[in-house]
Every structure is written in structure tokens, then in C-alpha cells.
Amino acid sequence: MRSRKLTCVSITLIVVLLCQNVHSQLQAGFYRNSCDCAESIVKDEVRNSFIKDQGVAAGLVRLHFHDCFVRGCDASVLIDSTSPSNQAEKDAPANNPSLRGFEVIDNAKARLEAICKGVVSCADILAFAARDSVEISGGIGYDVPAGRRDGKISLASDTFTNLPSPFFNVDQLTQLFANKGFTQEEMVTLSGAHVIGRSHCTPFSNRLYNFSGTTSQDPSLDPIYASQLKQQCPQGSTNPNLVVPMDPSSLGTMDAGYYTNILANQGLFTSDQTLLTNAATAIQVNQNARNAKLWRSKFASAMLKMGQLDVLTGNAGEIRSNCSECAFSASSRLLWISSKKKKVGFYGNSCGSSETIVKDEVRKGFYRDQGVAAGLVRLHFHDCFVKGCDGSVLVDSTPGNSAEKDSPANDPSLQGYEVIDSAKARLEAMCKGVVSCADIVAFAARDSIVITGGLGYEVPAGRRDGRISQVSETFTNLPPPTLNVDQLTQAFAKKGFTQEEMVTLTGPKFRSHVCGSVEAEVVHKGSKNPNLVVPMNSDCPGFGDAGYYRGVLANRGLFTSDQTLLANAATANQVIKNARNPQAWRLKFPAAMLKMGQLDVLTGNAGEIRTKCRVINSKRERGMLQTHTTL
């Protein structure tokens, strides 16, 4: 076996501008006594792959970057998704299908497991491989402090707020990198890795064909270069395999070509060319273009710093035996619901794309306005607590009937209707009369939790849509913000929830109006402006955060019904537990959502499948409905 014939010689690499704040538990030569061939084996696999495809070097550098910027350098980017409802980082739009180099990591891991079983982490393999890729492409080598452990969680939703978009401007780029502890100069330095990269057409096609209302082509893009790109990426092409080099000269070496390209208006992405729109970053672009050697030195230093972002060490995390599989699975730790009526994958045979389409519409809505995520969760709650989960909250009022959505508890604060409408329209075009509005709301709520950092879960489907929606039903079924803890407990008990589940379900209120819409309307004295709102938590976290409970403990609960949770010993204890252990709350919350999603559902021949979610079907439409089996 080739790996056994390797002479494990310690290779002294050039070390340049080592980070001074090296993590105390990371050290160069970490595997010297436990698996001294570790770095040599990784280097060998990188070299083997580079000979076959030079593009793998850029792929491995980008793989390391996309790993470290999401949950830290913990190899969470390598984990496979476990189900459509539990998408891992690698299947996020920012990563799939553009990330590459996974096979290099897998090959190195397999060889290392054969020699040193359970010793070398996937996170360290990735850090070594990125360094070796820089070096093999002409960059400066550096010693990699090792000792990282592998993460146990990988969520596609984490990528949305942690990875830079190719559409970012310079201020957005600067802020995102600053959030990770990088200076603006380090941001410009790390961007230089694009010189050996490639891109699919989608991230820059708007610069070629749909730039603005007045011009189809980005005026900051060199016209000759634009013509070349149009030949490589024809308008309207749906070929997922079309890629272009990010450096038009395609030398594939770690040089200053990225910066000279920008100066020639040949930056491929908006986020590349934008570096000339700021005086400070423009100066750095010019300096790097003139002094490639200096840039290589700075790049090695920045890579070292990046490789230590939020690392897991000691007893944290794990050492995976297979880099694409995690011993821990969030979905496997969930959930206790075991109703005999539930049917996960209900539309598998009748409309197999239903959940994918809903998820796609949630994602689009979230990109336009992150607040839609919390809005859709609240929409599901307000639907289920009034006449059960039957989509009745979606129905419009008529001249003779005021519907639920126009109740003071819902209007104007509820949001997310347009996401449901868009999903329904697409589903009707594909699977007419099959997917209920009630199920769409349930799917959308789940997807909203996942996209904002919460845990995914399978949604039993087969709900049918209700035919009655009355504003009066909301008055006795939706808990007002003025309730005390005893009244809240009773209101939830009537729906079959325990007091602990009541406290668990109140957690989404931490989503602020900016990021989400469980919003509080506060009327200034004398003001009649219906659009005045106050954020319920200015920190703007996702559904993986326990900020609501920390706010209550700090006496910043906005409603009486929030702060009252401290007035009872049992609920106060639950608030403290959730504040201290967000992970425990993240597990309890999907279980409570699953339970809520089965409140008083209509199944079988009850109710209907609405053609439009806002309108009860006419008699003619009812006669055309298909009959489905029960939940």
C-alpha cells in the first residue's frame, strides 16, 4: 500500500507572518507523536488530485474558507444532508454545486484512518489541504497549528448570514469580515484567492443581462471582457456545468492577477469590482497589484488567522471516522411525536416536489426580507390556535364576513401571505388540487425555522383546508399580550399544551421586526401611524438562539405576557434553563411545533383543497377536488 511506503519525513515549510494570537490548544506539529505522517499524507493526496485537475487547489482553499466562516473551522461543511428537511451546509445555494475538493479530503481521511484510526480530525485535514493548495499553486507555505476537533452540527441555514454574497458592495464585505475579526485590509487580501478560482454563471449573469432598469450590462465591466463572458454564459442557459475562470488569463497560479484584473475592470463579481469604489480598498488593490510578493506574504498570514476561527479543541466536538457523516444527527435527536395518523412524505406520489417548492419560496422571501421567517412561524401559530391548522387564517374577508386575518390580533402585524400565495400558485400549476394551503403553511413554518438557524424536522402532512374563517374566533383563542402567567398557562392547556411547552413556544418572540415579525405595535401618544413598530429583541438572532429568555431575565420582556414568566417559580425556572442552554431549547422547540401542527386538523373528506389560499372554493371547485388519505 502506497501510504505505508511513505517515508514520514518532517517537511520544514517557510513560515511567514505567523498570527500572534495562536489558539493556546492548537500547535504546529500536533500529530508528531500520534500520527506523524498526517501532513505528508494530506499533501500527497492534494498533489495527486492537482495533477489530474489543477482547479482542485482553488476548490480546497474555498472549501476551507466556507468551513471556517460558518460555525468556525470544524469541518461542518463536509457533512452530508440527512433528509430534505435537514439540509447541511454543503447543500446551501452558496455551496452547491460550486464547492469542490471533497474527494481529496475523503481520500486523505481514509488513508489516515487505516494508519492512525480516530486520531486526525477532518477539520485539520481541511486546513492542511488548503495550505498545500496555496503552496502547490505558487503561494507561500506556512506551518498549520493543528488540534482542531470536528463539529457535530451542519445547517444550510447558517450559510445565509455568514458567507459573503457575490452581490455584496464594499461596505457589506467589510462588515461581514469584521464580524469574523478581520480588518478591511485582510478582507482585500483574502479576496485575492479568486485568482485561481472559477465560477458558475449565475453569480455574475446579472452584470451581463439584467443589471438595472436603464442598462442591461454593468457599466463598470470591461466591454470586451463582458462579450467574452456572454459567449461562455449565454443568456437563458440552464446548463449547470458552465463555469468560467475568475482570472481571464487562466494561469492558475497564486499571483496578483486578481488585483490587476480589477484595475482593468475585469473583476468577475460585483463583490470584486466594488473594491475600487472605496478609497482605502482601492489603495490596497493597487498595492497588491504592484507587489505580488507582499500580497503572498499577507495572504499566508491571513489564511493562518482564518484557520483558527472558533475552533473546537480538547474534549469539544469529535473526531469523525468519515468526514461526510456525523455521529450526532440533529434530526435523529428529535422528536417524540408518534401519532398514528401522521404521514411524512404524504405527497411523495401525488406531488413529489411540494416541499421543495415551498422551501424555495421561503428562501426567496427570506432573501428579500429576513423578517418573513418569523412571520411565517407566527402565521402557522395563529392558524393552528384558531379552529385548528386548516389554513383559515389565510382567507380574505368578504362583504358579509370579517375573516381571521382582519382581527386586531392579526392585522396589520401578520406577514408572509405572499410566500404562501407564490408557493400555492406554483403547486397548482404542477399538481392542481393536490396540496392544501394548511400543509403549505406548516411546511413554510418549518423551513423558516431552519433558514434562521433552528433545527429541521419532518412535517406530517395531509391536512385539508377549512371553509370557515371568522374574526370572532380569534378573540377567545389567541392569547393577548396582556395575559398573566396563569392565564397563559390556561390558554395553552386548552389546546393540549403543558406549561413547559407554553414557555418553549414563546421563544420565537425574540425575532425583531427588522429580522422577523413577532412584532409589538407601540403607539406614540396621539400618533395614528399604523406602521410604528418596536423590535422585540434588537440583537436580531435566529431560531437557534435563546435571546428571548435572556431578555426576560434582564427585564426586557416587551409584553406583560413575556415578563410575567418570571412571576411563577416553575416558568421562571424554565426561562433560566432556556437562557443558559439554547441547544436544549432548540431541541424542544421543533417538538412543540410538530405538536402544534396537528391541532384539530381536517383530514380525509373533511374540508377541501383550496384553489387559492385566500378564497374558499366555489361549489364547482369543490366537486373537482381529489380525495386524499388521512394524516
Automatic annotation (TrEMBL):
Annotated positions binding Ca(2+) 1: 67, 70, 72, 74, 76, 89
Active site: 66 (proton acceptor)
Cofactor note: Binds 1 heme b (iron(II)-protoporphyrin IX) group per subunit.
GO biological process, one term: hydrogen peroxide catabolic process
Catalytic activity: 2 a phenolic donor + H2O2 = 2 a phenolic radical donor + 2 H2O
SUPFAM superfamilies according to UniProt: Heme-dependent peroxidases
InterPro entries on file: Haem_peroxidase, Haem_peroxidase_sf, Peroxidase_pln, Peroxidases_AS, Secretory_peroxidase
Stated name of the protein: peroxidase
Native source organism of the sequence: Fagus sylvatica (Beechnut)
